Amino acid sequence: MSREDRFTTRVKKYSKGDIIFNEGNTSDGLYLIKTGRVRVFKRVYTKGRIVEYELAQLGVNNIFGEMALLGECTRTASVRALTSTTCMRISKNVFEQHISKLPHWVHTVIKNLVIRLDETNNRLKTELEK
């Protein structure tokens, strides 16, 4: 990622079927869907094969990719464009500039919610892999 990309928002276009990011990738920002639809999913190893387990389908004005930013971890799920999709990618640095203006206790609440959701996702994945 270029230095410029780390401090900007950019509009990015994806074709139907494009993987926007994969679980485990390093976070480069969060995404706001301007047009189209995406599928958020986890790959789960079960019964001797890998299965894609859908967590959500999102459309216009929904965001995704926020968990890795707020939780300061790698991507917790994969995202694929279901249709031709346009997203505004908000870089981690731009996001942090805006969120830093909130009171500290708000950061604590948000981080705790992200941790709890991530723990729930991991428990679900463990159950599905049985």
From TrEMBL:
**Domain Cyclic nucleotide-binding: start-end pairs:** 12-116
Query: Which SMART domains is this protein grouped with?
Result: cNMP
The UniProt entry, under Pfam families, shows:
cNMP_binding
Q: What is this protein called?
A: Putative cyclic nucleotide-binding protein
Q: What domain of life does the native source organism fall in?
A: Bacteria
Which source organism does the UniProt entry give? Chitinivibrio alkaliphilus ACht1
* PROSITE patterns, sorted: CNMP_BINDING_2, CNMP_BINDING_3
* InterPro entries assigned: cNMP-bd_CS, cNMP-bd_dom, cNMP-bd_dom_sf, RmlC-like_jellyroll
